[in-house]
Structure formats: C-alpha cells, structure tokens
Amino acid sequence: MRCQRYLCASLLICASTLTSAEGIPVEPGLWESTTVIKSSMLPQPMKETTRECVTETEVTPELFIDQEDQSCAVSDVNVTSDTITWKMVCQEEGGQAKGDGILKVNGDEMSGKMQMTMSMQGMEVTMDSSWTGQRIGPCP
Q1: Considering only CA atoms, which of 95, 83, 101, 94 is closest in space to residue 9?
Q2: What is the total count of domains within the chain?
Q3: Per-residue model confidence as pLDDT tens digits over 102-119
Q4: Which of 15, 16, 31, 92 lies 20 to 30 Å from 66 when distance is taken between CA atoms?
Q5: What is the mean pLDDT of the chain?
Q6: Do you know which InterPro entries this protein is assigned to (predicted)?
Q7: Neighbouring C-beta atoms of residue 10, cutoff 10 Å
C-alpha cells in the first residue's frame, strides 16, 4: 500500500541522511514495536506489531539505508542525543507526498510520529502515523 511505503521510506531515508551524526543510543536486545497508521484512505486505522532482535548499541544511518529508493528527499534533519526530526518529500507517478516526523529513543523505549500529506490526482490526503517500541529482553 502506498501509505505504508511512505512511512517506511521516511524512516529509511531519514536515517540515511544522518551520515554526519553518530547516532542515537539504543539498548540491544529483543524489541517489540507497534505502528498505527490513520488516513482517510483507510477504512480503519492500520496497526502492526513486530518483534526484532537489535544487536547495535545506537541507531545509525547504516541500519536503515535503502540505496535503491531515490523517490524521496529528506531535509531539515536534526539529531540530538535522543531525538531525530526531519522533513521529507516523495515524488511518485501521479502525485507528491510531503511530511515531517520525529523519532525519540530513551534507552529501552522509543516513540515517534509522522504526518504526510499526499497530493494525488487533484485530491489531498493526510496520513498520520505513530509508533512505539520497547525492549522486552535479551535476544533469543
């Protein structure tokens, strides 16, 4: 789905623009993350929970880079000790999406949100995404 693609692209591309930043500290281990996407294009909010073994000690660009996707550009990236903020624009056939987001990591917890506005075939659609995550223990 196109909405989900923009959310993933924003996370991947946002991180890939941070090559001068050292990264945000994160506690290695088994992490559980929940993403909720709301949009007028969806009949109901989309919610997905995943678990992933994280072995790195900080969130860095190398963890997320998708070198093949060139349709989005990120600007105004700001990195502090525990937060990344960004703006992005994605060009797609038949439309454009613009948005901004924030990701905050605090040791064994993280949260973030992003709002995208898409202009497709003369219609403007807003997509609100939020995600939360927590370290639930060591990797199996």
Answers
A1: 101
A2: 1
A3: 889 887 899 999 999 988
A4: 31
A5: 77
A6: DUF3617
A7: 25
Q: Is residue 122 helix, strand or coil? A: coil
Q: In the chain, what is the greatest distance between 2 CA atoms, to the nearest angstrom?
A: 49
Looking up residue 70, the CATH number of its domain turns out to be 2.40.128
DSSP 8-state code for residue 27: -
Instruction: Give the C-alpha separation, 18 to 87, whole Å.
Output: 13
More confident residue, 66 or 86: 86
- Its pTM stands at 0.73
Of the two residues 92 and 10, the one the predictor is more confident about is 92
The tens digit of pLDDT for each residue in 46-77 reads 999 999 998 877 665 434 434 456 677 778 87
Q: In whole angstroms, what is the distance from residue 119 CA to residue 53 CA?
A: 36
CA atoms of 3 and 6, how far apart (whole Å): 5
- CA nearest 117: which of 102, 100, 93? 100
Tell me the residue range of the domain where 114 lies: 2-136
